[in-house]
Design a protein that fits this description.
- By secondary structure, the protein is of the alpha+beta class.
- It is built from 13 helices and twelve strands.
- It has an eight-stranded antiparallel sheet with strand order 2-1-12-11-10-9-8-7, sandwiched between helices. It has a two-stranded antiparallel sheet with strand order 3-6.
- α1 packs parallel to α13 (362-374) and α4 (91-104) crosses α12 (292-298).
- It is globular, with a radius of gyration of 20 Å.
């Protein structure tokens, strides 16, 4: 088993354990602190390495914002609700919403992905099963996580940087990888393996179908619709005025992730807590938007993942003992990490944005604890 796959399963196991522990207490939660703020402070003290902002929607549907640490080691400047972070793989949920919106509108009429690509690009298949949008959005396509996955014979692109691992790939290079190098690890639809390449490809194909680009449709059909004016795929001049510098596990400062078109849809969004509140509330149905039906569709269970919960379209779903469902996503880059989750039955939710990587799954563990804490107050 590849190391990356082992740790990915380990991260999800942490979330399952965090939500499952003390389930009797979850059904009749008893506050251990004077108020929600005190408990969030105590949770943050365990997990925040450099800085973080936490946004909470409590049982009364009131917003709370908490700030911890600094925007960079060696400074005293704390992050705030407008500070910009990489949200990593939470980007995948945006891509899924764009795809379902196109499907609802009838723009996507065939679930098979390959025929939307240029004729010279041949997607791999296995056992005569072709890859579909649902396969890609549920990580069941069999496509490896990245072209540079361990064991791949695809040559690294010129200028490849392990600290910004997607920036050097051009569309033509990924086309070459898909046509001549990519081998599916299993028959599509029969198993689950996380794939940034797969979800990134969805975003790219949506741009082709629209006749524009993933960047264009993301801004037009999500950011502009939800009023997320402080969100983008590349840092804008305004964002650079209030951004949280990314820190690796050794506290080395690293750059924000960037990518050319084909990997943008898997993890390149930069956003702020204020903007992510808008996204969270729209997904929870607390505000009515034109994307509501598409969002609802992405929240539905597509397949069961056993100890890892259920897989929706990009979102993951955990069902508690009393039937409550936590719909969530996490993101991790080399310098930032993030978490977003909501409980529709209680109309509660949380967002956490860190300016440190959490390869140990701390973003998911902290998120699980915060979601449980909200129910106590």
């Amino acid at each position: 088993m590849k190391i990356q796959k082992f740790f990915l399963r380990f991260f999800f196991l942490i979330v399952i354990i965090s939500f499952s522990a003390c389930k009797d207490d979850d059904l009749n939660p008893e506050p251990k602190y004077a108020n929600l703020e005190k408990e969030i402070d105590a949770i943050a003290a365990k997990y925040v390495k450099v800085g973080a902002v936490v946004g909470v929607i409590d049982k009364q549907q009131e917003d709370h914002i908490f700030s911890y640490g600094t925007k960079s080691i060696g400074t005293i400047d704390p992050p705030d609700a407008s500070t910009v972070f990489d949200i990593g793989s939470i980007t995948k949920t945006f891509t899924a919403i764009l795809a379902t919106e196109m499907y609802i509108k009838g723009v996507i009429q065939d679930d098979t992905v390959g025929h939307y690509l240029p004729n010279e690009v041949i997607l791999p298949s296995k056992d005569n099963v072709e890859i579909t949008f649902v396969h890609l959005l549920t990580h069941t396509s069999g496509m490896p996580r990245t072209p540079h996955e361990a064991g791949s014979n695809y040559p690294l692109p010129p200028g490849y940087d392990i600290e910004n691992p997607y920036a050097a790939y051009t569309t033509e290079q990924v086309y070459d990888y898909l046509t001549n190098y990519c081998e599916l690890e299993f028959t599509p639809g029969t198993w689950w393996e996380y794939s940034n390449t797969g979800v990134g490809l969805v975003g790219h194909v949506l741009g082709i179908i629209d006749g524009t680009s993933y960047q264009t449709i993301l801004k037009r059909d999500v950011f502009d619709v939800l009023g997320m004016s402080n969100s983008s795929l590349f840092l804008t001049d305004n964002q650079k005025l209030n951004m949280a510098l990314g820190h690796e596990t050794n506290n080395k400062i690293v750059s924000f992730y960037t990518a050319n078109d084909i990997f943008q849809g898997c993890g390149m969004i930069k956003s702020s807590l204020n903007d992510m509140f808008k996204y969270l509330k729209a997904n929870m149905g607390l505000v009515n938007t034109s994307l509501r039906d598409a969002m609802e569709l992405t929240h539905q269970k597509v397949m069961h993942q056993g100890s890892m919960g259920d897989q929706g379209l990009a979102w993951l779903i955990l069902e508690l003992d009393d039937g409550q469902k936590i719909i969530y996503s996490g993101g991790n880059t080399n310098g930032h990490s993030a978490y977003i989750a909501f409980n529709k039955s209680k109309s509660t939710g949380a967002i956490i944005l860190f300016n440190s990587s959490n390869h140990d799954g701390a973003n998911l563990s902290m998120g699980a604890e915060v979601m449980k804490a909200i129910l106590k107050y």
